[in-house]
Design a protein that fits this description.
Elements (H helix, E strand, L loop, with lengths): L7 H6 L2 H15 L18 H6 L1 H10 L3
């Protein structure tokens, strides 16, 4: 069973959108078996905050519908 461990200090001080990005990314590993090369929110270097915020629906669609 996969376990996601989140740094409590990061979680306490980051905003809602960053929490969502982090959880989608980690769930992509645990549930969808995506690697960092799967693109979108799974990229090893995370999508910049402003880019993700302005295009969240696009990235979520890419995340859930992207073929490995």
């Amino acid at each position: 069973t996969p376990i996601i461990v989140i740094d409590a200090k990061y979680w306490e001080y980051t905003n809602h959108l960053n929490k969502k990005r982090l959880m989608y990314h980690e769930l992509g590993h645990c549930i969808l078996d995506y690697g960092h090369l799967s693109g979108g929110i799974m990229a090893a270097i995370t999508i910049p905050y402003k880019e993700y915020k302005e295009n969240e629906e696009y990235y979520l669609d890419l995340f859930f519908n992207h073929s490995k």
